[in-house]
Amino acid sequence: MPARFDLGAKPHLGYTASALDRATELRQDKAAIAALEADAGARAFLLSGELVALHKGALQHDPIFTFAEAGALAPCSDRIFLGLRAGAPLFAILIDAEAAEALKRHDDLLVTDLRSIATGGLVAAEYLPPLAQSKAVVGWHARHRFCAKCGAPTEPAQAGWRRDCFVCGTEHFPRIDPVVIMLAIAGERCLLGRQPRFARGQWSCLAGYIEPGETIEEAVRRETFEEAGIKCGRVVYFASQPWPFPMSLMIGCHAEALTTELAVDRAELEDARWFERDEVAAMMLRRHPDGLIVTHPVAIAHHIIRAWLESESTV
Amino acid sequence: MPARFDLGAKPHLGYTASALDRATELRQDKAAIAALEADAGARAFLLSGELVALHKGALQHDPIFTFAEAGALAPCSDRIFLGLRAGAPLFAILIDAEAAEALKRHDDLLVTDLRSIATGGLVAAEYLPPLAQSKAVVGWHARHRFCAKCGAPTEPAQAGWRRDCFVCGTEHFPRIDPVVIMLAIAGERCLLGRQPRFARGQWSCLAGYIEPGETIEEAVRRETFEEAGIKCGRVVYFASQPWPFPMSLMIGCHAEALTTELAVDRAELEDARWFERDEVAAMMLRRHPDGLIVTHPVAIAHHIIRAWLESESTV
Predict the structure, then answer these.
(1) What is the DSSP string of B199-233?
(2) ipTM value
(3) What parts of chain B have a pLDDT lower than 50?
(4) Which residue of B has its CA nearest to A300?
(5) DSSP annotation string for B64-75
(6) DSSP single-letter state for residue B21
(7) pTM of the shown model
(8) Pairing relation of β-strands B248-257 and B232-243?
(9) Over the stretch A122-135, which tens digit does the pLDDT of each residue have?
(10) Which end is more exposed in chain B, N or C (fewer Cβ atoms within 10 Å of the end residue's Cβ)?
(11) Rounded to whole angstroms, how far apart are CA atoms A207 and A204?
(12) Contacts of A236 in chain B (CB under 8 A)
């Protein structure tokens, strides 16, 4: 590997650095999966759509259930083998929306969404990556109960990692949508945008789905031009992050802006503008005079912006 | 952008560097699309599954048809707006398999697959990126005629860039599967593998689909360990390439091998082994005494390997 490729240490991004061994070779082995489910050490997360069930704790909450606990709380609709956690099998148990709502009435449980869990630090950090993994796969099952090729109902297979159509024989695998998320840089300024759904005062990187027939770099240039009218030259990959809302892979980049005159697409963005380095530093430190802030550190956008702030040189 | 992020010039990869303006804002505008279709300058590719129709030429062939030519040759089942080519609208016209077979009987046409077109240099280089774009979207339509959520038939929308379900209201967008493709490096050696479907003597990078809940870097480490038993540390992004066979995005990386003892997964690979730098150079130049070769330059694997060969330093 050429030494010039060394980008140095990467930040720790939310939902990454999973300690789980996915043990993917076991998925096809029904007997092995059954044995793991029967294992006294088997544990599971309990999920339904956006919701995750947690045992309430004093400081942090606990997302881990035994199969007996889970079975007593709600009927299981799907079960996904996530992998081995220090040798012990970990599953995601999918329950239906009604059952999840009913769990909210249990005083010893907290039933909330993954974003709140991550940004609030509600569980130990080690659980965030497998919870993200669970949410993405559980969400994929919920949206893919039928065969896109022939319309027939499909059945889960491979311990929850495939859905099979028994009419036309198609095997369907979990879908991931690759998304570019980028910071365009012009001298000492960077380009940030605001989506209408953002919290008051929050600004972030621009982002968009990669299209068929595009590279990462081409998607960065196209999206930056479409959303803000800015043409970009050089594009440099920074880091990636799984983003299970519902099933994206965020691919973070820095981009060299070749133009600076903005033409904001108001259908996509509430606003976009250039920010000076000092202003972004104040936003990062939550000391901006107008209360402007950047995205929470759980999201890669925060780290893309921070890496630029912390760099000494510019494009 | 930090100067240390500068990876220098990237190679030209097959199917990349499209000269097309996708003009995505027009897709939602039915009147605009109808006007583009009626434009005297409108042109189209003619595709069916793996097959592309070309006008035969003396040196290179021509994939461009007028709407009148296309209509006279075969009935159109779907039409996709690809974008503007030097201001003129370009479409992909999908014809059915039977019609494509019938075109093979026309003496003035060559009907062949995109791989053969790309590796054989059968058309001008500028056409490869929009042909890749076409093949990916056309293939997506063919495999997504029904709603994965409710099973009802879906209808094309947004000039071919969306399929809508009128029963449950779900909007479906083209799917892209992100794939990691990597070269693990241990000192002066790199790890190459052979899939059973490879041409005789051909070796390439290992590769695999990114899973939900994984980063690019985590997927590189998991796949390299699963397929070859090698643990990797540092992973460095190299470049990306759309790969419409059927709908992948190849994400190329170099990886630092932390171990060297191989445990090849024979279900995935015919073989995998370490290659010395000199041997790989001979393969790249097609001068290997046993006739071993690396992947064709149309694929990113070739360039991932070449970048390592051309680098002076190692991990």
Answers:
(1) PTTEEB-EEEEPPTT--HHHHHHHHHHHHH---EE
(2) 0.94
(3) 1-8, 313-315
(4) B215
(5) -EEHHHHHHHS-
(6) B
(7) 0.95
(8) antiparallel
(9) 999 999 999 999 99
(10) C
(11) 9
(12) 1, 5-7
